[in-house]
Structure formats: structure tokens, C-alpha cells
Amino acid sequence: MFYEPKNGHGLPHNPFNAIVTPRPIGWISTRGADGRDNLAPYSFFNAVAYTPPQVMFASTGAKPDRDGTKDTAANIRETGVFVVNVVSFVLKDAMNLTSGPWDKTQDEFALADLEKAEAQTINCPRVAAAPAALECKVTQIVDLAGDHNTMVIGEVTGIHMDDTCLKDGLFDVTTFNPVARLGYKDYSTVRDLFSLKRPGQD
To answer: Name one Pfam family in it (predicted).
Structure first.
């Protein structure tokens, strides 16, 4: 099968997200200029550079109470900072609950009964139970083609790791099983690992 997205695919559901998988989930926490906290997951997310460490995520769609965007992007435009919280398997239901189209006044930490911890390099909350969290300062906000598509790029200024996830000096994802987004309503988790050496590596 071949299709051009501009002409449609003719399938019951859009296959695009199912093709580009698995995708890590950036569980983004923000604090608005008014002091209200927000937490929402984004599956258009990834790390994009080592030095300095940088990440990106894209917000798609809009809420009627946010004038053409979503709470996360609106807060970031106001403050210029955010935290990426890593989603472990045990946090999957809380993450899913925070994905709802809640009113901008709703604190999703409270909604999902999640303990907050304060970031150290920025004024922003993080998920205390997350196995890792990345404190970020915005470097670019890019308006993408299409309606309400916004990409945010941030430099990582602080990194939190749960000490129980460190094994022999390595951050071991099998200790918490990160959750990944697939297509449709599907998710996956990392349980099995294998290693490959690049050509020329010892």
C-alpha cells in the first residue's frame, strides 16, 4: 500500500503514529506565570543533542480556554522553563489520567494524586516518583506547519535520577520499565535489552 497523506489513507484509523514507534513519552510539567502547575504527556518527544544536552517535544492541537494552544505550551511561553518526567510502568495510569482535556485551572498533580518535588535550576515542579527528570530552559519555540502545531526545544540544566535505578554506574531502565507510545490506543514497555557494537568500537 502507498498513500499520500494529503489525499487520505482510506483506513479505519490513521497509521502514521503506528509506523513511527515506539516513541518515548515526555511527561511535561510546567508552572504558569500565575503560579498554577500543570502536567501532561507528549509522545512527540525525544533527546536531540548531547553537548549541551537538549530535548524537544511538540504540542499538537488546542484547547478552547488556551487561545490556539494547550496548557503546557502556554505556560512555557510565559516562563521559558519545563521539566521532562520519565514515565515508569507503575506510573502509566497516572500519566494517562493527566492526558485529559482538563480546564487550565486544574492541577494534574492533584488530580492524579502525585507528589510534587521542586526543580533545583528552574522554577517548576517535577514528579517526585519519576525515575528520572530533566530540568529544561527553552532555547527555541518553533511554529510548525498545520494548525496548532508547536515544537519546543530546551537545554537540560539539571538531571534527577532515582539512585535505585543506578546499577554498576549505569542508569538501568529495566529497574523501572519505561513506557513508550505506539499507534492508536497502544503502549509498550521496555523489559528486554540487547547490545550492539558500532563498527570500530572496542
So the answer is: Flavin_Reduct
Query: Residues near 108 by Cβ (< 8 Å), separated by ≥ 6?
Result: 37, 38, 39, 40, 97, 98, 102, 114
* pLDDT tens by residue, 117-172: 999 999 999 999 999 999 999 999 999 999 999 999 999 999 999 999 999 999 99
Q: How far apart are CA 137 and CA 79, in angstroms?
A: 9
CA angle 104, 142, 158 (to 5 degrees): 70
Count: domains in the chain: 1
Cα 76–82–83 angle (5° rounding)? 160
Q: Tell the burial category of 85 from Cβ atoms under 10 Å away from its Cβ (0-12, 13-18, 19+).
A: buried
Q: In this structure, which amino acid lies at residue 108?
A: E
User: Does 12 sit behind a cis peptide bond, omega within 30 degrees of 0 on the bond before it?
Assistant: no
Structural domain includes residue 202: no
